[in-house]
Amino acid sequence: MGEESYGSFRVVSTLLFCLLPILAAAQQGSAALDVPDKFNLDMRTAARLRPELLAQSTAPGRYATGRRVFEKLAEQAHASRNRKPAWELRIVNEVLLNAFSSPDGTIYVGRGLADLAGTRAGLWAAILSHEIAHVVRRDWARRYLYEESLRYGGGSVVLGDPGLSPVAWTDSQKASEDLARFCRQLELEADLEGLMLMARTGYHPDFVPALHHLLHAQGAGKIAPSVFAMHPCWEERDRELDRAYIVASIEFERRWPEWYASPGGDPPILVFADEPRVKKTRTKEWEIRLPMRCQNLVGAVEVVLQTYSAAAPRSITEQGTSRGAASNDEVRQLTGCTSPKTTITFTVTDDSQKAMSAEVFVLDGQGAVLSRAAIPKLRP
Predict the structure, then answer these.
(1) Can you tell me the distance from the alpha carbon of 177 to that of 230, in angstroms, rounded to the nearest whole number?
(2) Phi and psi (nearest 5°) for 376?
(3) Closest Cα partner for 170 from 182, 160, 155?
(4) pTM as predicted
(5) Within a 10 A sphere around the Cβ of 94, how many other Cβ atoms?
(6) Number of other residues whose CB lies within 10 A of the CB of residue 23
(7) Is 95 among the domain residues?
(8) What pLDDT shows up at residue 152?
């Protein structure tokens, strides 16, 4: 998922290719890299680290929904005939909004992410299918082999050394960009394979963007666009998944014509919020326009604008309650989101001489967050 500071788990999860975590195979080409049949460094590394990982995690226990979903997905996963993972689900004993996979077939989900999914089978499927795809594809081994090709085969080193010449440093920077691009491609391809695994197993692909939007609203895995980023940002994932959603949805509907009868049930409400547009209309007054598109919506959603004088804006929890710095103002609008591109307009006024921060949240009928958008600072 996102790269956070996980304490003692950070090193281990990085070694095990910490990815989530979420499409059309990217336009820049496949990250396909054949793993030799006799290559087993990934499995030896998994075996060496397994005791430490087991000591810091537990069986699913009260997360019965996650266990059931995992078993269904593992049954449908198409691993190579000469390599059958020993599938197992573990819950990490830290409040992490993260999941990662071990090459041996063990999937680790942070307790915070497990609590976020709760009893919603579709969200569990979105989490687990991506990690299962990484195992089936042997993405840990692919990443390792690609790094080695950069280090030795390409005549470049991945990490720069201050003592190297400027030419060597340039090669190092390019190698780092290449590795990051390769890792982002692995993520997108695992998303694609995970979507199709969900469709075959009976979980609507729309649960993937629903999970992405929920994590984005929680502030998890914030990734600024960068040529060195190892994971795509949420917005990039939405763009790259666009056509793949259609393909996976067709496959789901072919297998499960009665959506409600599928293991995951009906697809979730989805809200795709575009980047807000801010226009200063007069002194101390701004117009904020939020273009948005909804899927699977019956009824209405509530759009909430919050403005803050504090530098760090608070966020709305999954249940719709806010936390953090005090809000100067809060404005709410209901919308049926009936057109393909519904636009919600807010007018904000402020008599202070300080810049304001603002955020927009979209909530469902129960007050749960569906989407979040950050507003550029409103300057006097």
Answers:
(1) 9
(2) -55, 150
(3) 160
(4) 0.80
(5) 15
(6) 28
(7) yes
(8) 66
Work out whether strand 270-273 and strand 277-282 pair parallel, antiparallel, or are unpaired.
Answer: unpaired
Region 138-149: what's the mean pLDDT? 87
The domain of 176 spans 9-261
For tokens 């996979």, name the residue: 101
Q: How far is CA 228 from CA 30, 99, 148, 174, 176, in A?
A: 18, 21, 18, 10, 7
- Residues with Cβ within 8 Å of residue 293, at least 6 apart in sequence: 271, 272, 274, 337, 340, 341, 342
Choose one of 230, 261, 292: the last residue of a domain. Answer: 261
pLDDT digits (tens, 9 = 90+) for 230-245: 566 767 777 777 888 8
Which of 201, 232, 261 lies at the terminal end of a domain, its last residue?
Answer: 261
pLDDT tens profile 310-368: 554 444 444 444 444 444 578 999 999 988 889 999 988 876 666 678 889 999 988 98
Residues 134 and 278 occupy one common structural domain: no
The Cβ-side half-sphere exposure at 123, using a 13 Å CA radius, reads 22
Q: Is the pLDDT of residue 4 over 60?
A: no
For the chain, what is the domain count?
2
- Asked if residue 161 and residue 178 are part of one domain, the reply reads yes
61 in a structural domain: yes
Same domain flag for 229 and 280: no
C-alpha dihedral sign at 59, 93, 201, 31: negative
Q: Is residue 3 part of a domain?
A: no
231 plus 372 within the same structural domain? no
Asked if residue 227 and residue 367 are part of one domain, the reply reads no
Residue of 285, 286, 264, 269 whose CA lies nearest to 277: 286
Amino acid at 57: S
What is the pLDDT at residue 90? 97
